[in-house]
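Same chain as my last thread, 191 residues:
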Amino acid sequence: MIGRLAIHLYRFQIRLRNRIFSSAVRGAFLRFGKGSTIQLPASLWGEARVAIGTKVHIGPDSWIQYLGGEQGDAPVIEIGDGCSLSGGVVITAVSKVTLGQNVLIGRNVHISDHSHEFSDPDVPVMKQGLGNIRPVSIGDGAWIGQGVVICPGAVIGKNAVIGANSVVKGTIPDHSVAVGAPARIVRGPQG
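reply #2:
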């Protein structure tokens, strides 16, 4: 009995803390929809160019960052209504990352519209800047499994499923299932 009460109190304080934090940071975002929460701890950079829809959940240890310097009115990172991002998700953008509505993302997923340059062997990678900048799009209702890496230029279709630990570099059609590194379609739209 006391153990169950302790668990309920623990869960209540987590929900309360997340709601308070989400309410406090709401105004810093380009858009932050009603009923959306960011679970602490979280890393947020460039939130003025991030648009979060309604009833979005962003799990703990997630990292949402816009790396561009210019200000503007258009979102660079856009997370649609009803999306659920598990813990440890990284979304990093220079150009554009779009998640449609009701996208489900597993733990420790990395989504990026850019990569680091590494062409000069005499210069440390971190000092060579960013390159391969291409927008990323994930369609409505897609399910991204745990540990997936989504590379610059990837397009994942509506209701597509990406298996755990896959690496997505290209286009995955609507209603398809893709797995592997690189991700290959194992079931197409017709089943």
